[in-house]
Fold this sequence. Notes:
By secondary structure, the chain is mainly α. Helices cover 74% and strands 0% of the residues. It contains four helices and no strands.
Amino acid sequence: MTDRPTPVNLHTAARSRLLSWARDLYIAARPDLAARHQHALARLEDPDPAVSRAAVDELSAVLHEAIDAIGGQPQHRDGPTVAECAANDRRWDLEKAGE
């Protein structure tokens, strides 16, 4: 048996690459989004966790705005925010200690 992807997976992968390319072009064509994108990328590795978390949130907002504008549909909008995930990570040991 081979590990070749099924045609559905090929279609999904091609669509994903196309949406990523279109999203990047849209961001590059909009100076306001391009500036926000670059600013967020520059702050991602900041030593201050609050700054890097804000950068992740801003980057996510820019990418979602671009995807929405080009007609793509992000697959993960229903999940928790980055801040909620970080809060859950901090509480994990306290909540799971009794199990």
